Amino acid sequence: MKKLSVNFLVIAAFSLLLLAFVTIKDGGIKGKVSPDSGAVQVVAVAGTDTIKGDLSSGSFTINNVKPGTYTVWVKAKPPYKDKSVENVAVVDSTVTDVGEIKLEQ
Fold this sequence. Notes:
Blueprint: H1 2-22, E1 27-34, E2 39-46, E3 49-52, E4 54-56, E5 59-65, E6 68-76, E7 83-90, E8 95-102
Parallel strand pairs: 1-8
Antiparallel strand pairs: 1-5, 2-3, 2-6, 4-5, 6-7
């Protein structure tokens, strides 16, 4: 009987531990580039990880971003210059809005 109780407790603890990892979800980054026709690509960089974003009419979203601190790079079309936003914090299951990124000529 005692062995059965110990086995049950071990299995229950292991199951709870697995559920704790299942609930962690990646976040995202969103924003807008101005002028809306000035950007070619938007990426988020953290260390050696680079994640490409979807860009449409100046608005962008970067999905499946692991929690951490990122630099968002906007690759611009000439005559505009590339621009970056540093220290963008992404937390679990949250989409971080960087607002409007204004490109300069």
